[in-house]
Input
Amino acid sequence: MQDVISSQEERMKKTVANLKDGFAALRTGRASAALFDKIRVDCYGEKSPINQVANISIPEARLIVIQPWDKNLIGEIEKAIRSSELSLNPSNDGKVIRIAIPPLTEERRKELVKLAKNQAEQSRVAIRNIRRDGNDDLKKLLKDSSITEDDESKGSAELQKLTDSYITKVNQTLEEKEKEIMEV
Output
């Protein structure tokens, strides 16, 4: 029974971690190196993350500076950023790429909050599905006479507590991201 619960808890942890990763890629009005985590650069015939071919620094709240380790990649990095869905306009001086992060409009902020809420809802649904899988596993164990009915009901109650706590974590993460997005 504990195996079922611990494996479902592990899956719930991964769901919350995936949500946080997804939120890191959502652009706010502030500069963040995490914006570029999903962008891949064509580097000598292979697609590599930007942070593996360049140094990303944030000297000011609304400025990102990307310094490629190989100056020949500057054009590829710039092209990858332009073609991403971040809507950023990089400029380079031959040595570094500078990206000014424009302030978000109220309308864009509301769109981003809507996106964040949608991602959070998908995570909540995933957590509930994990709970359902756990309950199904407990029922199978009961059917095979591996556990008693009392153990099955205790396990279901424990899974419900886990579900509630992870849904609360999703809600807290969403709340933090909403504040960050709506901050001017």
About this structure: DSSP finds four helices and six strands in the chain. The beta strands are 40-43, 46-49, 54-60, 63-68, 91-92, 97-100.
